[in-house]
Design a protein that fits this description.
single chain; alpha+beta; Translation Initiation Factor IF3; Alpha-Beta Plaits; 9 strands; elongated
Length: 218
């Protein structure tokens, strides 16, 4: 999995007559998760199976693909039947060559899919930390240009799924906590964000937190 940091900054600055002032910064951390395996589902009619399967197997062997043809349907008889197979390959360049081979052999491609690792709770911890660092960096730039200094962080508003107060008394690392998170992901609208099989080779996500600082002139 590779992570990519993209920063978008929104700042609100509340000026008061008092010496201290409030600075509110949106810290962001955006990431991209890439597929570990690439897959294709193909269909070959029973009339062409002997010739095309043999040709395809030879091409697969020449490409160095170790994960061979896997049949995904088993008709009772082969009269007027179409056989379905899947091939999976981790190397994206080799997989692209495989698609060219399948097309050249005029084999019907039914679906191309990508297997992305399940999104882990540990990744959320990393994202939250990076979002806070992003907010701190932007806050330092602002106060420096205004000749102010940061006194302390007053508040952090977490806009993610697990920021709700209902989780305050739950240990998210415990067996019960992990089960609850799994159930919430399955039932929520965000569950599709973390599907393992995707039609795209990558999955994007992000983590946002609002951080409020107390600042004052130097």
């Amino acid at each position: 999995m590779k992570l990519v940091l993209i920063s978008t900054i929104f700042l609100t600055f509340f000026i008061s007559k008092a010496q201290t002032t409030t600075l509110r910064v949106l810290g962001q951390y955006n990431y991209v998760e890439y597929a570990e395996t690439n897959g294709v589902n193909i269909a070959i009619s029973d009339k062409e199976i002997d010739v095309k399967k043999k040709l395809l197997l030879n091409k697969i062997d020449s490409l160095g693909i170790t994960n061979n043809l896997t049949q995904i349907n088993h008709p009772v008889n082969f009269q007027n039947k179409t056989l379905h197979f899947k091939i999976e390959e981790k190397n994206r360049n080799v997989f692209d060559q495989l698609l060219i081979v399948i097309n050249d052999l005029q084999i019907n491609i039914q679906k191309v899919y990508f297997k992305i690792p399940p999104h882990q709770l540990e990744d959320e911890y990393l994202s939250a930390t990076m979002a806070l660092k992003n907010a701190n960096s932007q806050a330092k730039i602002v106060v420096h240009n205004l000749n102010y200094k940061i006194i302390e962080i007053l508040n952090i508003d977490d806009e993610t799924t697990y920021a709700s107060p209902i989780y305050d008394n739950i240990d998210l690392d415990s067996k019960r906590g992990k089960l609850m998170i799994k159930i919430i992901n399955l039932l929520s609208d965000n569950s599709s964000l973390y599907e393992k099989e995707s039609s795209k080779p990558s999955r994007q996500g992000g983590y946002n937190i609002w951080v409020t600082y107390k600042v004052k002139p130097k």
